[in-house]
């Protein structure tokens, strides 16, 4: 049973789907949604502002939560924007782009862990689950490219592993995992969907339900790992 839940990145495609699916699955739970801008069209949750590249904003957001949290989901991430594209070769590398990607994909979740992990329920099973990506797996990299994005997800997975070891010393029921959602039909993946088979392009709602099924089956023995939407462990 989950009584208090936080979804960080509530305005994104996956974050919105998580809030809807969580309300359907746990109708009595108090759900907190965090995002830079308040999303429209969502009900049955409490919205709080957050800027994940600003530690003071993260700390203030965490201070808005008083009840122990049973589940924390981080559904934020960046791959591209108007000025940023994934690198195809070394010629495309730039310090500015690396910094931007790492701030959102790695540093932001790390600082969220710093301020939100102490809020996890210590009496019952509780879960901290940022969205990661299979492309962060070193052994799976056979195409190259996407330097900053791949590296940011690999670094995120190491941060989760570190945090899982530290938190287990004082919270034996805590589970810290990364989740790979598959290729989701969203703004993040839209420019790159041409090479994705229709059967492997998921709606946000489908991916979210699959990930919630994975979350529901986790035990403390799973902490520190990364799992895909089918519950299969993704090695480093």
What is the distance, rounded to the nearest whole angstrom, between the alpha carbons of the first and last residues?
Answer: 31 Å
Please summarize the sheet with the most strands. 6 strands, parallel
Low-confidence stretches at least 5 residues in length (pLDDT < 50)? none
**Count of runs of 4 or more consecutive helical residues:** 5
How many whole angstroms does the radius of gyration measure? 17 Å
Overall pLDDT, averaged? Answer: 94
Level of helix content? 25-40%
- What is the H-and-E element order? EHEEHEHEHEEEEHE
Order of strands, main sheet, comes to 3-2-1-4-5-6
Alpha-beta classification: alpha/beta
Approximately how much beta-strand content do the residues carry? Answer: 15-25%
Oligomer: single chain
Summarize the structure in words.
The structure is a single chain. The protein has 236 residues and is α/β, with parallel strands linked by helices. The chain contains 5 helices and 10 strands. The strands form 3 sheets. Strands 3-2-1-4-5-6 form a 6-stranded parallel sheet, sandwiched between helices. A two-stranded parallel ribbon has the order 7-10. Strand 5, helix 4 and strand 6 form a beta-alpha-beta unit. Helix 1 crosses helix 5 and helix 3 runs parallel beside helix 4. The chain is globular, with a radius of gyration of 17 Å. The chain starts with a strand and ends in an 8-residue tail after the last strand. The model has no long low-confidence stretch (mean pLDDT 94).
């Amino acid at each position: 049973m989950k009584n208090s839940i936080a979804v960080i990145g509530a305005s994104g495609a996956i974050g919105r789907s998580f809030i809807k699916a969580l309300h359907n699955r746990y109708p009595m739970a108090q759900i907190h949604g965090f995002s830079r801008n308040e999303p429209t069209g969502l009900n049955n949750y409490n919205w709080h502002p957050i800027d994940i590249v600003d530690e003071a904003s993260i700390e203030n957001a965490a201070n808005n939560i008083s009840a122990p949290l049973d589940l924390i989901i981080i559904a934020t991430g960046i791959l591209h924007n108007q000025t940023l594209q994934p690198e195809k070769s070394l010629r495309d590398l730039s310090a500015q782009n690396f910094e931007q990607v790492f701030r959102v994909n790695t540093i932001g979740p790390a600082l969220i862990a710093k301020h939100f992990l102490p809020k996890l329920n210590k009496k019952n099973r509780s879960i901290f689950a940022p969205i990661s990506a299979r492309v962060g797996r070193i052994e799976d990299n056979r195409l190259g490219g996407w330097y900053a994005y791949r590296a940011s997800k690999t670094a995120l997975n190491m941060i989760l592993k570190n945090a899982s070891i530290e938190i287990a010393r004082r919270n034996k029921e805590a589970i810290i995992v990364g989740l790979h959602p598959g290729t989701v039909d969203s703004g993040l993946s839209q420019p790159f969907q041409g090479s994705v088979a229709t059967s492997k392009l998921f709606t946000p709602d489908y991916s979210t339900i699959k990930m919630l099924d994975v979350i529901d089956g986790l035990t403390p023995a799973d902490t520190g790992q990364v799992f895909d939407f089918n519950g299969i462990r993704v090695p480093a």
